[in-house]
């Protein structure tokens, strides 16, 4: 049985319009290219009723729990692992179909930060 998280994210494009057959890590100073078959960890957040990717992490930058510095009180957030697959996607900028574009192939939830958790905003008196 497919859960709502899987239904919303499996098949979602993770590359760029410039190079749809590779993905990058958000935490490298230089270039970090991930290809089909590589593991990608993604921080996601629920916005306007949909799960939206925030940050991509390669295996070298993977973490065990949703990072406290990225957590927001009142927002449903999760950390997932996926294997990149060249299943094809329409590119966001051009809507051109790229048959080997990388997408989310499977999902393993590493950590879930429900809306009642996360950092609370500081009081400003």
Uncertain runs are none
- Overall 3D form: globular
How would you state the average pLDDT, rounded?
88
In this structure, how is the largest beta sheet organized? 5 strands, antiparallel
Strand content: 25-35%
Task: Note down, in words, how this protein is organized.
It is a single chain. This protein is 5% helix and 34% strand. Strands 3, 4, 5, 8 and 9 form a 5-stranded antiparallel β-sheet that branches. It has one helix at residues 4-9; strands spanning 23-24, 33-34, 39-47, 50-57, 77-85, 89-90, 97-98, 103-104, 108-113. The model has no long low-confidence stretch (mean pLDDT 88). The protein is built from 1 helix and 9 strands. The chain is mainly β and 125 residues long. A hairpin with an 8-residue loop joins strand 1 and strand 2 (33-34).
Summarize the structure.
By secondary structure, this protein is mainly beta. Helix content is 5%, strand content 34%. It is built from one helix and nine strands; from the N terminus they run αβββββββββ.
């Amino acid at each position: 049985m497919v859960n709502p998280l899987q239904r919303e994210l499996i098949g979602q494009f993770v590359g760029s319009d410039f190079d749809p057959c590779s993905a990058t890590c958000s935490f490298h100073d230089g270039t970090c290219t991930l290809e089909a078959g590589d593991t990608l960890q993604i921080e996601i957040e629920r916005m306007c009723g949909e799960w939206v990717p925030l940050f991509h992490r390669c295996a070298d930058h993977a973490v065990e729990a949703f990072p406290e510095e990225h957590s927001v009180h009142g927002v449903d957030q999760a950390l997932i692992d996926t294997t990149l697959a060249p299943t094809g996607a329409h590119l966001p900028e051009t809507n051109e179909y790229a048959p080997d574009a990388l997408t989310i192939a499977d999902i393993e939830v590493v950590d879930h930060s429900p809306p009642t958790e996360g950092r609370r905003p500081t009081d400003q008196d």
